[in-house]
Amino acid sequence: MRKEILAAITINPELVGGGIPIFIAQDRAEQDKIATYLARITEGVVHDLENGVYVLARH
């Protein structure tokens, strides 16, 4: 099985970049909602980096 980062969900776009999709939320509640929906859709796992960024990964 290949491990991969699928997306980043953030409230602070200055903290992320690169070749993955980046979803920008207006606040923490919206960030949680987007991360939850994306995890269900992609069958991924959400990891909180504790700096305002969530990473969606598939293990």
Description:
The chain is of the alpha+beta class and 59 residues long. It has one domain (4-58). 25% of the residues lie in helices and 34% in strands. It is built from 1 helix and 4 strands, in the order E-E-H-E-E. It has one helix at 28-42, and strands spanning 4-10, 22-24, 45-48, 53-58. A 4-stranded mixed sheet has the order 2-1-4-3, with helices on one face. Strand 3 (45-48) and strand 4 form a beta hairpin.
Tertiary shape: globular
- Roughly how much helix do the residues carry, as a percent range? 25-40%
Low-confidence stretches: none
- Which sequence of SSEs, written as H and E, runs from N to C? EEHEE
Per DSSP, the total helix count is: 1
Q: Give the overall average pLDDT.
A: 95
Concise description?
By secondary structure, the protein is α+β, with helices and mostly antiparallel strands. The chain is 25% helix and 34% strand. The protein has 1 helix and 4 strands.
How do the strands and helices of this protein lay out in sequence?
Elements: E1 4-10, E2 22-24, H1 28-42, E3 45-48, E4 53-58
Parallel strand pairs: 1-2
Antiparallel strand pairs: 1-4, 3-4
Summary tags:
59 residues; alpha+beta; four-stranded mixed β-sheet; 4 strands; 25% helix
